[in-house]
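Below is how a single chain appears once it has passed through the pipeline. First comes the sequence as given, then the structure the pipeline wrote out for it. We keep one example in the README because the format questions we get most often are answered faster by looking than by reading.
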Amino acid sequence: MTWTNIKRVARTGFVNFWRNATISLASVMVMSVSLFVLMSLLLSSAAGDSVMSLLKDKVDVNIYFKTNVSELEILDLKDKLSVLPEVKEVTYTSKEDALASFKERHKDNTLILNSLEELKDNPLGAIISIKTKEPSQYEGVAKFLEGDVALSADGSSIIDNNNFYQNKMAIDRLTKLIESSEKIGFYIFIVFILMAIVVTQNTIRLAIYNSKEEISVMRLMGANNWYIRGPFVVSGIMSGLLASFLTLVIFYPITLWMGGKTESFLAGINIFAFYKMNFFQIAGKVFISGMILGGFSSYLSVRRYLHV
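Resulting structure:
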């Protein structure tokens, strides 16, 4: 198709869009509803991912060392843990800092503080806190610590205890929750995409039916399939763009109203702040989705119902 034909097809699609204003408006409204649902899923998915990230960040494994272990040995193990590909962060807490933190937590308990004063030595060992990139990776780190890497020069373990196995049930539940939410979100998104295409396609079919005689004349004159189909695809894309713009406008007051309410049950996540911060990224996805939804639905409608 030459550039002249492309311009002619685009101009025809633009004219047809405004000539069939009523049907075009119906297509825009139907696609707005479809895009509204898809955008709701998009924001819900983003909010869910943020909540999951917060939950992941709260999960860690603490390694408690024996009190007679030297700081050099602990830092050496810390360096070995830091280079593991699944490890996201390793934090070291010295014996002194662990004692100070313990005293701060129990500052109102006079009995515990007096007991500590009577002890000559610090009863607490150093601590290393480990965060992995995914909750499912903690078990691998725990097995890594059970090897020779945590042995001292005399062959004894420098680790007194770690809380992985105490937290294992919570970690496994979080892992299953993340996997299930990802699968369910994907399937819901696919279902609504298909529903949006079917509903939009049936609406656009009305506009194509109104032009059936015109299409028959074009075919008799030898117009090729793309030249006939092109204007409807252009009109569908225009409907998708207008529907995308309308959806973004509608979502602004909705997210503004929901912003304060979502903070109370989404771990402090303000959906309005998220919408504003990621507006251009969200707008790009919505406009692309609208163009694809309108253009593809128009393409299917012409092909299926007019046998072009």
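The chain has eleven helices and four strands.

See the next section for the split statistics.
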